[in-house]
Amino acid sequence: MSIPTDRVRTNPILMVLVVVGFLVLIPILVIAISAQDPFWYVNGFDVLPYRVVVYTGGESTEYMQGMPGYDQLAEGVRASLDRGVQRGSAIGLSPESLNDAYQKYTSVEAFFPGPVKLHAAINTHAPNQMLFLLTGRHSDYPIAFMGVDGMYYTNGPILNTNEPLRAALQALDYDLTPVQ
Question: What is the pTM of this model?
Answer without folding.
Answer: 0.85
